[in-house]
Design goal:
The structure is a single chain. By secondary structure, the chain is mostly helical. It has six helices and three strands, in the order ααβααββαα. It has a three-stranded antiparallel β-sheet. Strand 2 and strand 3 form a beta hairpin. The protein starts with a helix and ends in a 9-residue tail after the last helix.
Amino acid sequence: MSPSPKVVHESCLAVREVLNRVGDKWSVQIVAFLRGGPRRFSELRRSIEGISQRMLTLTLKGLERDGLVTRTVSPTVPPRVDYALTTLGRTLLKPITALARWSEDNRHTIHRARAQFDSVKKPTTKRP
């Protein structure tokens, strides 16, 4: 017996909601970088090429809200802010690593497929 359309719909919504957070390029890079342990905001910013301060702040807040990252403020002058993966965040490392490995293994095949696809002249359709 197959699941009801309502169950399938709710499952798709749940998957989409999670993938919106963990599937974006900044979240993946931050989680991967935090694999090595807690990092300061400035260290993350320098290490993630192309990310703006605002985008890093927003992404870290989202990851913290979802329980994937913790934020620790040390009472120093200036304040020191460290980010680290939570237990839940560490569970993301295995699928992210697998996806990265798959990407590396298949990058050239995908590039060839794109080139082949792009080289085929698309027939034009005339509209009435």
